[in-house]
Design goal:
Length: 548
């Protein structure tokens, strides 16, 4: 008679260790509390990933826990080249410090619970899978895609619970002898968990964030080892978080439905389950309805969006704190001397349903920050960003710091200031025209901006420019400058105000010539205060740009 051990040995002949051996190799931590961030390097990092990582790291740090990074790369067909390096770089950028993980050069591991990359842990998963086979808690399955599709179609038609369970699994109840015979002739199989739960049985479990949850228990014989010998998420979660001694699994709500299966698996191995903390998803308002922030449809789901558009990382984190704790802003106002990192988060008080990711509010938070800091700080931070994303502009900024600071200082800390810079990208847009080299790149749109206006008349504007530069004086007050400008304008048929223009007899009005100066000097129709710009640019640069 064929034994279960013979079946297990035939499937995993190279496995000699037991789970007990592995537990000795990875003993309990000196500090028994640990949390982790476990992303997949299959594409861009979702803002929700940063959100979950920040919560996990923050909660670990405030309790003197260990926080580690584990790379879940078992879906190797979708793996992005350089994806691990990108994940580590983003975490570092957001100040999310990793205590353990593949963070040394060339993704080598730091920490005693290595390897921290799932594709390097294949031997460990086989130990766990072999245990299940030996104890008849799992079985090899040879069902083809066509068979699975036919079952799914039948279940849909008959409106029964979908999945592979009971009589829907043709291999579940085969004898060891039948399985052995099949193993000898066909090596293309997966390993399925043998669930012992009855259909539609209900169960209850506790989640630190969601509290008490009652749901349908898992009755499905879920795949644990794929045909490529790599584990599915479910087996990897049990093996990894058991041996890495994870005490708190802080992860996205999309994994909440898998908890019944995971608790069954922990029980099957006789291992204690960690405490689960399922973070609610970030939502977006779309045509009046809330939906999950989507990688496919929403550019702001990609963390790169925020860097490309010049958001300050500190204030992205601070905004995320307002989602973690709805009372954060009140607490911050009551304790203005505290850093945003000094405020503790309480998992039990986090939102149980999805939180709206409000890009407008984030812009407001970022705007307030850029408005409050000094011009020196704004300059330094803008240079740092430009060095990464606009290197040519960064060189110009570094070459003449006083000129750049004077440009940045226009309307700073005035009633107009909050409208000027929302992101560092706004800073760059409003700096480039101060540099002759960058303005040249913008000059193609000068005539386009003038089109349809009297200021497009080159002969007329040349006469105006010739006279205007002869009297140009940047030492005047704003009022004196404006008065002088109106006197010159009137000679060329421009009204001093709208009321005067409506009386008739004028070819244009004061705003038209102001627009002409903006376009010639800045290659833009909208800018900060025009006279302030002119004072920063200086007479020589102004004359050069105005002359035809």
């Amino acid at each position: 008679m064929t034994s279960r051990k013979e079946i297990a040995d035939m499937i995993f002949p190279e496995v000699t260790e037991t789970i007990q051996d592995l537990e000795k190799k990875y003993p309990p931590r000196a500090n028994p509390i640990a949390s982790r961030f476990a992303p997949s390097p299959t594409g861009f990092l979702h803002i929700g990933g940063i959100y979950a990582a920040f919560v996990s790291r923050k909660f670990a740090k405030q309790n003197n826990w260990t926080f580690f990074l584990r790379i879940e790369d078992t879906d190797q067909k979708r793996e992005l080249e350089g994806g691990v390096e990108l994940i580590i770089a983003w975490l570092k950028t957001f100040g999310i410090q990793i205590d353990e993980g593949p963070i040394w050069a060339n993704n080598t591991d730091r920490g005693a619970y290595w390897p921290y990359t799932q594709s390097h842990r294949k031997a460990i998963y086989k130990v766990f899978a072999k245990y299940l086979i030996e104890n008849w808690l799992a079985y090899p399955c040879w069902m083809k895609t066509e068979e699975l599709d036919a079952i799914r179609e039948q279940q849909t038609k008959t409106k029964v619970t979908p999945g592979i369970y009971g009589n829907y699994s043709v291999r579940r109840n085969k004898t060891p002898e039948e399985i052995l015979a099949k193993l000898q002739s066909d090596k293309a199989y997966v390993i399925r968990f043998r669930s012992s739960v009855e259909l539609n049985k209900r169960m209850v479990f506790e989640d630190i964030i969601k509290w008490r949850i009652e749901t349908i228990d898992n009755c499905n014989d879920i795949v644990l080892i794929k045909s490529d010998e790599l584990p599915t998420y479910h087996l990897a979660h049990i093996a990894d978080d058991s041996l890495m001694r994870t005490s708190h699994v802080i992860r996205g709500e999309e994994r909440l439905a898998s908890v019944p299966l995971h608790l069954q698996l922990f029980a099957s191995f006789g291992l204690p389950a960690p405490k689960y903390c399922h973070v609610a998803p970030l939502l977006k308002l779309d045509n009046g309805n809330k939906r999950k922030l989507s990688k496919r449809h929403d550019p702001e789901a990609d963390i790169w969006f925020f860097f490309e558009n010049g958001y300050a990382t500190q204030w992205i984190i601070e905004y995320l704190l307002t989602i973690v704790d709805p009372h954060f802003e009140e607490r911050q106002k009551a304790n203005p001397e505290k850093s945003y990192l000094d405020f503790e988060i309480i998992l039990e008080k986090m939102g149980k349903s999805g939180a709206l990711f409000d890009l407008v509010k984030l812009q407001s938070v970022n705007n307030n920050y850029l408005s409050k800091i000094s011009t020196d700080e704004l300059y330094a931070q803008s240079v740092t960003r430009a060095e990464k994303y606009k290197p040519e502009l960064a060189k110009l900024m570094l070459a003449d710091a006083s000129y750049v600071k004077a440009a940045l200082n226009i309307e700073r800390h005035t009633a107009k200031d909050p409208k000027r810079f929302t992101t560092y990208a706004d800073v760059e847009k409003q700096l480039i025209f101060f540099f002759d080299e960058e303005r040249t790149k913008l000059s193609w749109n000068i005539e386009i901006l003038k089109n349809g206006n009297v200021i497009a008349d080159k002969v007329l504007m040349k006469k105006f420019v010739d006279e205007y530069i002869s009297v140009l004086d940047l030492n005047m007050s704003l009022e004196e400058w404006f008065t002088q400008l109106k006197e010159v304008w009137k000679k060329y048929g421009f009204a001093s105000n709208n009321a005067e223009f409506k009386e008739g007899g004028y070819i244009g009005k004061i705003g038209d010539l102001a627009m002409f100066l903006r376009i010639q000097l800045c290659c833009a129709a909208q800018t900060p205060d025009l006279y302030s710009i002119m004072q920063v640019m200086g007479k020589e640069r102004i004359i050069k740009r105005l002359k035809y």
